[in-house]
Amino acid sequence: MIHRFETIDSTNTYLKQLAEGGAPAGTAVIAQSQTGGRGRLGRSFHSPSGSGIYLSYLLRPNCDPSELMHLTCAVAVAMCDAVEAATGLHPGIKWTNDLVHGKRKLGGILTELGFENGKVSYAVLGIGINCTQKAEDFPPEIQGIATSLAAVTGKPVNKAALEAEMLQALKTMDETLFHKEAILERYRKSCITLNQQICVVRGDESSYGTALDVDSEGALVVRFEDGTVRAVSSGEVSVRGMYGYL
Ligand code: BTN
User: In angstroms, rounded to a whole number, what is the distance separating the alpha carbons of residues 126 and 19?
Assistant: First the structure.
């Protein structure tokens, strides 16, 4: 079932409530605008009316959390497929959850899990894609970072077609979620972070290095300046030359 709203605070927050109330896998929430759209690391996601697709989709994996480390990667691959099917553009993926074109962000993914008896009782997959904005439509603080599908392709975006492709791609992803290595191989091919100089920020601490690989759990394998090679699975990873990191 699809729950549609003109305006909502956050489609993820609403779908989490539906999930707690027993909604089945495949339930979706779609809004024309969000007043409190949320991103990773407590950030907000700018969600103005009619300009983007703001969609959340429910999974009921009922598995151990350790089996879902690659979930956000799987959603990113599925969303690249959906965007390509609807617009002809294959976005890049900035590890871990940003859809990008060139140096700019087209959209993002926020995955949130619920647990029961140690198992994942639900996963809410939230996706926001900028569709129709012109550069000047974005707030000043993200003008140098964000872009939209229309700005990149130079063509109008059929939002209904994109939404249908996204829902179909999420359903297929759910059915094939545990074909982990095939998913990650596709993720690596689209991941623009690989072979780039990066900065990992955790709390007050910044560490610099080169992104080498995405491992079998979806973590980013980094060679740090001190020569150590470690997998990074959380925190903010900035790519040199993108989003204001020079
Ligand atoms: C990010 O950029 O860090 C992730 C952004 C995710 C935004 C989407 S829009 C639909 C869903 N509802 C939310 O509040 N967030 C996600």
Answer: 13
Q: How far is the centre of ligand 1, averaged over its atoms, from the C-alpha of 155 (Å)?
A: 24
Show the DSSP H helices in 21-179 as ranges.
71-87, 149-153, 159-175
Of 202, 167, 173, 171, the closest CA to residue 187 belongs to 173
- Residue 127, SS3 per DSSP: strand
Ligand 1 centroid–CA 72 distance in Å is: 12
Ligand 1 contact via 56 beta carbon (within 6 Å): yes
Single pTM value for the model? 0.97
CB atoms within 10 A of CB 20: 11
57 Cβ below 6 A of ligand 1: no
Render pLDDT for 52-99 as a digit per residue (tens, 0 to 9).
999 999 999 999 999 999 999 999 999 999 999 999 999 999 999 999
Angle at 243 between CA 237 and CA 246, to 5 degrees: 85
Residues 229 and 177: their CA atoms lie apart, in Å, by 28
Neighbouring C-alpha atoms within 13 Å toward the C-beta of 106: 23
Q: Which residues of 184-207 are buried (b: 16+ CB within 10 A; e: fewer)?
A: bebbbebbbbbebebebeeeeeeb
Q: Is 40 in the pocket of ligand 1 (CB under 6 A)?
A: yes
Q: How many CA atoms lie within 13 A of 194 on its CB side?
A: 14
Angle between helices 159-175 and 71-87 (to 10 degrees): 140
CA-12 nearest atom, ligand 1: 12
